[in-house]
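B., you asked whether I could sanity-check this one before it goes into the benchmark set. Here's the sequence:
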Amino acid sequence: AAGRNADLVVFDNLTDLNPLCVYSGGQRVARHGAILKPSEPVAGCQAPRDTMQIPLRTQEDFVIRVPGLAAGRARFKTIKGARFTQWSETEVEVRDGQVIVPAGFSLISVQHRHGRHQAGTRLALLEGWGELQGAIATSYSHDSHNLVVLGRAPQEMMLAANTLIASGGGMAVVQQGKVLAHVAMPIAGMLSDLPASELAASLHALREVSGKVVEWEPPYRVFKAIEGTCL
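And here's what the prediction gave me:
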């Protein structure tokens, strides 16, 4: 479109797909397989690094409260399933106006992070993920890539969330008040600027320790499901 900074790849044919030129942000940055002026940044193409537009979370952000009920029992809708979700329902205990997470359940928190509006935290009972022994947070979460936290204990969910807010996004695994693993993704909250080999090693380590928090049950309750569970 006129006036836009284009990203283009120009090919010489549609069979072998040999790139003749690459344009980024309206400027030619490569020609015949060679990068042009690698030391100069491309104008208008600075990586977005300030996309966690939310204040640090508190424990209260991860507590479900029942207005008007100090103690007793209440019926609650739940989100059931690890990939193909559906509504379900369960009875919960309420103490001091706070929902006690039932056995076999966990919590899912979704927080808008892009600064487009002032939406509050959305918190729900999660069924089908078992009892998480810690918390997992991610800002890489289809489709809107908001801040998503899975867990049971508010303090652990808070620590996981705040770890990502401080690093500009990424993924974090927390257990017993400690960050077991953290992969920072400061570019748009979805990309890392680490070399590929370092990033692969960090993500592999995070996947390994996540098994301490979630008891995986293939084919649906697997690590990859974290990225799309808030759909």
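One thing to flag: The first strand starts at residue 8 and ends at 11. Otherwise nothing jumped out at me.
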